[in-house]
Structure formats: structure tokens, C-alpha cells
Amino acid sequence: MSDNGDPDDAALLACLDTSPERSDAWERLSAVADEFAARPHDEDDVRWKPPMRREDGVLTFGYPIYGERVERACHALSEVGAVTPAYHWTDRRPPDVPDDGTPLSPADAIRLATTIVRGERFGDGHIAQAVERGTLQAILASLAAWRRER
Asked: Are the C-beta atoms of 5 and 87 separated by less than 8 Å?
């Protein structure tokens, strides 16, 4: 593992919690991955609260409201260790999801999960973009497949 916040693939995979205590979390991750595989986009996944001016004149910004399965997906990613402080996402360009249908590597899935879930704290809509582009779906599929192969 590199100490500069850019761990190699093996170090990132070691961040995943495969202990028996986390088997339920992996089942939840696999279940939501299957849901997204069957139905990649659902109108309930992301709704946007529009900006508005309150009665006192204050302008509020719009923000995303995530549906139940998106919330379950993000929670499961955190539970299994796919959102990790080992990867310094603010210092790195996130990997791209292959355009040719090639599955996302599990280590790149961890890099992207960390970037997307942590990025939401700094700017609304990171998760929404990941859902719209299919990135969240690719992350879930990659990690669910990795777990099944173990």
C-alpha cells in the first residue's frame, strides 16, 4: 500500500470487510445490485427539490432527494468497506467506467464508490450523476461479482 493516499489494487481490496459479521451487508449489496441490473433507472431513484425563495426572501438551493434503493446502495457500500479513507479521492482523478461493456475492476469500484459517496458531502448531486450515468450500477455489479467469486 502506498502511503500517499493512492493505494494499489490489493490494498484497496483488503479494505473490504469480508468477515462473517458483514455477510448480511454483502447480501444487501448483492440484492440492490440485482435490482439495478433488472431496472437500471427508476423515477424514484433521484428527485430534485427545486430552488425556491422563502417568504422571508431567502433563496434556497435545490438538492437531490434519493430514493430508497439508492440509499440502500450507498449504505451497503459503506458497510462493506467500499467507501474508505485509505483512498484520498480529493487528490486523484476517479477512474472511468469502461464504455465497451467491460466490467469495472473491484479496486476501481472502490475508488469510485469513495469518490461518489464522499463527494456528496461537498456538493449535492454526485450520487445523482452516478445513477444517471450508470456508474453506481457498475460499482454495485463489480463488487457483487467479486464477492460471489470469493
From this structure: yes
